[in-house]
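Task: fold both queries, return tokens.
Query 1:
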Amino acid sequence: MTVYAYAESTSRAQGERLAFHLAHTSRAPLQGLVRVEDVASGRGVLDAEFDGPLWNLDIPAEWASSLYRAVFTSGEDSGEDGGEVYFAVRAARPSSPILLSIPFPTWQAYNRAGIPGESLYWSEEPTRAARVSFDRPGGGPPPERWEEGMIRWLGPAGYRVDYCSGLDLHEGGELLSGYRLLVVNGHDEYWSAGMRDAVEEFVRRGGNLAVFSGNTCWWQFRLEDGGRTMVCHRDAVADPLSAVEPGLTTVEWSGSPVDRPENAMIGVSFRRGAGTWGPYMQRMHEESYVVRFPEHWAFAGTGLGEGDKFGQGAIGYETDACDFAEVDGVPLATGRDGTPPSFVILATADLRHWHRYGQGGMATMGVMRLGAGTVFNAATVNWGNALHAPAVDRITRNVLDRLSAPIRGWEVIGTADSPRALAVLGTTLYGVGRDGSLLAREVCGQNLRWRHVGTAPGVIALAVPREATVTRPIGLYGLTEEGRLVLREPDGSWTALGQAPPGADGLATTNGVMFASTGETLWHLPAEGGSWTPVDTAPGVVALTAANGRLYAVDAAGRVRTRLPLAAAEPWTDLCDAGGATVLTAHAGRLIGTAPDLPLSWRPCAPDPGPVPPGITPAGDRSEPRERG
């Protein structure tokens, strides 16, 4: 006799009760044994008996927050599998900065796949269901167990994490507010508007998101019947809401009339990803990622170099990607598909040959900023089942360690080409090479190569005004070794504008005013012209720049200091560590720095995260969540 079972919820908190509904097809009494196992540890945590169609589990407060499996067997079982039900136990109060979401909506979407009217699959079969209920047996992980590898790896790897159901993210703002990092793992294909809204708000407010998943957030679904029915028509014509509330139509997130590409939240999409299905699924084990940005923090400690392959087998049967162009051998996201301009490509896998096996495309691993938060995306289904590989293990640790703590310091955006001067004009970052060449590249987080665009003979410092004045047009201003102030003309030549203070080696401009530093003295040149005058001390300044009505300097102690651009004495305020930079510029709220043999890096023009002011509870800082049903 087989017992069929389902739970009234996909999750409950420690100390709460979860009811299970049971049935069988025999006339014998409905009674037997139930064993509850912690999937993460593989250990049994409870053996009990059931008698009748309802069994209640009072979840002990001491049970770890985790994914659990309840297995029901009858006394008449003769080797036949009993019913199994998966559920998550949430922490009553956050016990970790990391929250791991279990993709129960995707599991339920595939439940009874191929049975007419019983499943949302297969995708284009006219007999597929448009509505499926959580009040039925099944809805557990697929046979491939995409999520299980990471779930079993976390504990032995030294990570304590809290768990939730993906359904808990629907209107889950309060739940998320207790955590710093949300982890999405495996195959998390189905998202409701409530799930997406809550996660995007969490990240924009300063929480972080790590996506170790592929085909992520591909279909939109709706919840009905108190959250127990999952609706996904996959077709705008059949969905009655398409004419009433188009944004909630249950089609692909990137499709019309929703037109809300998942790229905006996670950087990539299955739209440009790849898939290998059915008898060809094993092809995924032949593929590897190729490193495209080895200096990035995600690759720290891996020993990988540019062009190296890693993670064979981590490329799952479905991958996500963004549209990108190769620029001097470096991939750069175009943004044409909705990927934000902050997205940085770390690794790629060319899977266009998969067009014979399901869907040809790419896989693009990357990281981006979204509001005040950071999103990392491995962009593949099988990442968690390749954690035995040293490089995959280390990258995962780098991501979890960095994104589960306050993010401090500088982030590498280029190689160690060490220009001796930096400035931004428009959207172009200019540098002066050690040989006097003028270099340029786009201002972005991608590791683009410097291009030679001219010469800058003798220039040792650069500055660019934000706005033109009567006497000073917008352009590249330079300070030369001979102590002259120069301006680069549109034809690439340099015009001498006059002398600079003796020994000056730092230059900045703000509100039409020029400032120069000579190591111990700050000098001022009025907007209307005139002569340089000393206005303040500048103790040990080795680099000077300006942005947003403020001066920034690197001092001899390796600190970034800042002050208002007044033509008078003004205290220098300590801002942050300079990260070894001895060359500095600023643009759009970021400091950009480098030094001989130091990669080009940037960071916000803001202090590192510190103690939270009284009365302020930003996303990612723990708070006591409300009780959830």
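Query 1 returned. Query 2:
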Amino acid sequence: MMTTDSTARYEYFSQQVKPLLDRVYGDRTAQDLVDRIFKLLDSHFADSVEENLNKWSQDNIIAIAYGDSIYSSTGEKPLVTLSRFLEKHLEDTITGIHILPFCPYSSDDGFAVIDYLAVNFELGDWSDIEKIGKKFNLMADLVLNHVSSQSEWFQQFKQGIEPGCNYFIEANPDADLSKVIRPRNSPLLAKVNTVEGEKYVWATFSHDQVDLNFENPDVLVEFLKIILFYVQKGAKYIRLDAVGFLWKEPGSSCIHLSQTHAIIRLLREILQTLDPSVALITETNVPNRENLSYFGNRNEAHMIYNFSLPPLVLNALLQGRSEHLKTWMMSMPPAPIGCAYFNFTASHDGIGLRPTEGLLAEEEFKTLIGVMKQFGGQISYRTRPDGSQSPYEINISLFDALKGTAKGEDRWQIERFLCSQTIMMSLEGIPAFYIHSLLATHNDTENMERTGHNRSINRHRWNYEELEKQLRDPESPHAIVLKELCRLIRIRRRQPAFHPNATQYTLHPLNQALFAFWRQSMHRDQSIFSIHNLSNRTQKLRLSNLNLVCTDSWCDLISGKCIEEVHTEFILKPYQSAWITNKY
């Protein structure tokens, strides 16, 4: 029998989640699910389920790394080594860490999960994860579209054993699935030998990553158990990997379906009941308008990846022009209240090209592809519904992607790269730095050739002792970049105008080599004019074009240069950035 408090919680919970379950599963199943899920979560409800609108501030900075991005020759577990590196070099710089999939896996560097509740023993154990989580806000991946073919669930499927026998999507190989949108060029259906004979199962990403059947509500409940477990282990961000493909309806595109959006809303409500401080983030590498839909009506993801940013920043710096960045920025709505953009320029994956659709002209797109090949990059392709192939992503280290311009390599690699990172951390949203950006890591062609996978070029594993040697050398690009990025990040963290939801307004200097925008703090007491020279030539900006309030004193936070006269010209060296503010 429920107590009065429990009854009140149940009524509130049912009111919040039943309409969403109705949308996905229908009324009869939904009512049963409400009871099952409430029973699972009742003893774990937060004291208050009021929405937390203060999940972040300008102080939030996230790093992204694999558990073994840094390893030691001493034989210690990589998570221990990673923890040591973070504490030594980044403890006063970053506030959060996205440790890429740390569970046992069979392929795709962790994204073919075998066991969601375990830590890959080669990396360490849960105590290592929890130790890192005590010093840095932890982001954990929830790979919920698919599971490893070596998982217990899929082995049960092949043996006809419950519950796994009901967890996957069987399909007729002769069915018309031509409308399905996919990020890969492998066959959609994987042939599997089972105790009941040959079957075909849905595999959006690879035949080792078998799609789960969320039409079965038991699958949803399994993942709610996993979310509860991750929150108990200290996760402050839950990242929904490849979530756009979650729901399948033959005859449709099978991406961004309404049931998928309803499930994301449901997961947000579940997290709200467990811990209102935890944020849900969706990873949907798709054109910009489609990506924005994952905010919902400020009731789906708390954060969405800003997928158009990496290719547009890269293209702007290769071309030395700001026009496409400005066009994109003007089209970007402010994130809804309680939501934020997740800004990044590089990640463990490649630089997505679908987000450039409708933003880059064909010739410029071809130039981008060609230059990346010249700089050692690879191009990965996807199969369109009509069977044709199109570029899906660029696989390259961002540091090497910026070793030159569309005219070829030059001597401005470090400055150009630092400009790219300064642009990213200046924009509305929460900045995220891939560890190989912080470390100015080069292309790992040897790793790519060894694995046979293009993405391995940007998944270098640093030997800790060698990395420390490089960082002690003040002339190495790794030391130069890390030192300067840490300095810039620490400056940024102190500026209210860089709050993730602070006002952002695009500026329009006549000089296309300059990319400029205005940020204003939520209390309107600080303005920052963020100015970036995208070219390898010195540029001039008339400060009168910025409308600096003449009664205030102004200073560039990056150079420390104070501005004595607001009607003079401000000189920017090649790839120089400036944060001109009235509060310093």
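Both queries returned. Flag for query 2: The longest strand covers residues 137-143.
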